[in-house]
Specification:
This protein is mainly alpha-helical. 82% of the residues lie in helices and 0% in strands. It is built from 8 helices and no strands. 26% of the residues are buried. It comes from Cinnamomum micranthum f. kanehirae.
Length: 232
C-alpha cells in the first residue's frame, strides 16, 4: 500500500502525470455529459462544465511545452538519417501543436479575439496529427527491429555450447526488448487515439466527432500515458 502511495506521489509530481489525470477527468466528464444529456440535464450540465474546465486547465498547464520538442531534437536528433528525418517531422508537428495551443487557450478564455479559436484549433490539430503520424511510424520501425533482434538473441541463447553467463545476458537483453516493446505499443495506442481527436478538429465528421469516439479515444490516450509514466 505504501509503495503504491509513494509511486502515486512521484507520478503526480510530474507534469505528464498531472496532465494524464486531468485528461481522465476531461474525457470521463465528456462521456457522462453524453450519457446524461437526455435524461438528467442538470448532471449533464455539470459534467460539461467539468469537461471544459479540465480542458482549459490542461492547456494552461502545458504553457511552454513546445520547447520540449526543440530540446529533444537538440539532444537526440536520431541515430540514422531515417530516424533523424522522422524525428524532425514528429517533433516539429508536436511543437506546432503546443505553440498554437497557447493562442487557442487565450482565445477561449477571452484574452484575445474569440473568433481566432477555430483557426488556432485547426493549426494546432494539424501540427498535432502530423507529429503523431511520424511518431507512430518511428515506433513501428523500432518495434520491428526489436522483434528481429529478439529472435536472434533467443536463437543464440538456445545454443547448448555457449556459457551459462552468456545465456543469462541474452535473456536479460530479451527482457529489455520486450519491456521496450510494451512501452512503444502504449505510445502507439496513445498516438492513434490522439490522432482521432486531431482529425475531429481538422475535418469534423460524424464518426470522429461523436462523443463516445472522442471520450474513448481520450481515455485510451490518458491511460496509455498513465501506464508509460507510472514509476517502475
Amino acid at each position: 500500500m505504501n509503495d503504491t502511495v509513494d509511486k502515486l506521489v512521484i507520478f503526480l509530481a510530474k507534469r505528464d502525470g498531472i496532465d494524464k489525470l486531468v485528461k481522465t477527468f476531461q474525457y470521463v466528464s465528456k462521456l457522462v455529459h453524453w450519457h446524461a444529456e437526455a435524461t438528467h440535464p442538470g448532471i449533464a450540465n455539470k459534467a460539461k462544465q467539468w469537461e471544459v474546465a479540465s480542458g482549459l486547465s490542461r492547456k494552461a498547464f502545458r504553457t511552454g511545452r513546445f520547447l520540449t520538442g526543440f530540446n529533444t531534437l537538440r539532444r537526440s536528433p536520431g541515430s540514422t538519417p531515417l530516424f533523424r528525418f522522422l524525428a524532425v517531422f514528429a517533433n516539429a508537428g508536436e511543437m506546432i501543436y503546443f505553440f498554437f495551443d497557447h493562442f487557442l487557450w487565450l482565445s477561449r478564455i477571452g484574452v484575445i479575439d474569440a473568433n481566432l479559436a477555430r483557426r488556432m484549433s485547426f493549426i494546432s490539430a494539424f501540427g498535432e496529427s502530423l507529429g503523431y503520424v511520424f511518431f507512430i511510424i518511428s515506433d513501428f520501425i523500432i518495434i520491428k527491429e526489436g522483434l528481429a533482434m529478439q529472435r536472434i538473441l533467443q536463437a543464440y541463447a538456445s545454443d547448448e555450447d555457449i556459457p551459462t553467463e552468456k545465456v543469462v545476458e541474452q535473456k536479460e537483453a530479451v527482457r529489455k526488448i520486450r519491456a521496450d516493446r510494451i512501452m512503444r505499443l502504449m505510445a502507439v495506442a496513445a498516438n492513434i487515439a490522439d490522432l482521432v481527436i486531431g482529425v475531429a478538429d481538422i475535418e469534423p465528421n460524424p464518426l470522429c466527432n461523436h462523443a463516445v469516439t472522442l471520450g474513448i479515444s481520450g481515455l485510451v490516450s490518458a491511460w496509455a500515458g498513465w501506464y508509460r509514466n507510472w514509476p517502475s
